[in-house]
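Technical note accompanying the year-one report. For the benefit of new consortium partners, we illustrate the data format agreed upon in the data management plan: each record pairs a sequence with a structure-token string. No post-processing was applied to the example shown here.
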Amino acid sequence: MERTRALADFDRSRDEFLAAMDVAPDACLTYLKPGDIYSIGGLAVHCNWVLRHYAWVLERLAAPARAEFRIADPPEEKAAADRRALAGLEPGERAAEFRTLATLHGDVLRLALAIPEESWESKTGVFYGEAKEAHPTSADDVTGWLRDHYLEHVPQATALIAVWRASAAS
């Protein structure tokens, strides 16, 4: 996909995610549906972790000498993000978490724009975590995955808020 369109889609997906989260009352931000791994507010925490992870990938893809590389998330940071995503957000934490999301989203855009347009779809082998084989990855792939990730959580947020409202009403 052409870079300008890919980045516009990325922005649009973020806006849809933010709109879905905007209607979440503060009181529901710690709600965790039994069996889920993300509370309602934890969806923002989780999105921030994913943005951070893929910013690291884009940073390496933007390097002048493109060669295969391994991306391994710092285990302690990943575990802390997972705990926070499970616990959710207190009302006073909401604004800061969404400011972080805005910053990380901007970082992804900045890193994506650092990749020359003619290299936008060029694949580089990336070893994710402990993978034994490299996964061919381009900047277009990364922004597409992030776009889809935001959009995956839009109906999830809407459904979780509805479940919370129903449980709060009973």
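Partners are asked to follow this layout when depositing records. The radius of gyration is 17 Å.
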